[in-house]
Amino acid sequence: MACNNTTYFQMLMNNSDLLNELYKTSYYVGILNHNIPVAMQVNKIVTPIWLVVGIFGNIISAIVWANPRMRTCNTAAYYLTCLSIADLTFLILCFIYELENPWLLSPLDLTGWCQIFQMANIAVQYFCVFLVFAFTAERFLSMWFPFKSERFGKTRTPRIIMGLMGVAVALSLPQLYFWDIHPIVGECQLRSTLSKKSEVSFFSLYTWCTELAVFGVLPLVVLFLNTAVLYKIRNVGKLNLGSANHHSSRSSSSRIPTEQSTSLLQSDKAGKDANQSRTNGGAKSNSSSASTTATLLGVAFFLILTMLPNTLLYAMQEMVNFGPMPCRVEDMSSDPKWRDFFAFTSVKVIVKEISLSHHVGNVFIYMATSRRFLQLAVNTVLMRSNKASADTSLHTIRIANTRTVGDGV
Fold this sequence. Notes:
This protein has helices at residues 6-13, 16-20, 25-35, 37-65, 68-71, 76-100, 113-144, 157-172, 175-178, 197-253, 258-316, 336-356, 362-369, 371-381, 393-400; strands spanning 179-181, 188-190. By secondary structure, the protein is an all-alpha fold.
């Protein structure tokens, strides 16, 4: 086969500088540019678009969800504010990594910064998944166990978020050891001592278990909880419809004489007028709760749909290895092992771009499912004063609602 080129192998052995090139990021990127140019161009074009849209959208989302009007009687706003900030942080880190690969500008090749970057990059991704899991779990409890869910109020939500952040950082701490500046090529890479078999086993086992648990198992749990929430919503809707029909049939079968009916209506008029505002407030409260549920379900399902394919490919990548080395770049396409590697890598690059969208597209879900978010977002973009548009329903919702999860979006 072409990759068993004895002349090329001898040339590498006689030239240490040429041999060291094989360990550089530029060599790996050059291989991909030569053999999968379409996938690499997609990466270079789509990722900057995601970064621009996502950074702008997450800034707007964080500002709107942090607005006191959104946080009133609404613990979901705390989670969504932190999720917007976490997504924004990840996109900034993604921009820095893109400068390293594929643009080869080497922004990570500094001792200390290399390790911190790798730890922060993993931690913020864990944190995003934890936040989606947390507000999904709270929504599940509020639907199935409404009395128990009252313990998840405004006072506990910040502590839960801080706890989740602590867990994310703790799980990513080993990255400080796994990464280092390569002693020969001077680039941020896996620590060279990980070439020992025992340490490779620890690195592979820890990374494989933690990432599959966070990016694989947790999204599946979120899927199960959301399915349960949808099932509950469907059953509650049927129950309400059945109750309304039963009440209507009872009313029609128990009619009283016109004179008595008129007298009772007149005597009850004052009570009905007194209860009218409370009824309106309850209706608006139910509408707000339904809007919150739609928002949280949309974010959760978007995460699942975009993350699980990427996680599946991550689990499969151990089965797809590099082709034989050393091998000239122009000869790799003729080797079957290298062809399999390039085909898998092409799919992985495209799926990575799709997966990246879940850090970008939440703002569109917010605008589609929450009228109040859309109004405040427009006001924020146009720099209007939020005081100019009075929200008279807010006071009613404060009175009508208790501090349950997610009300008031």
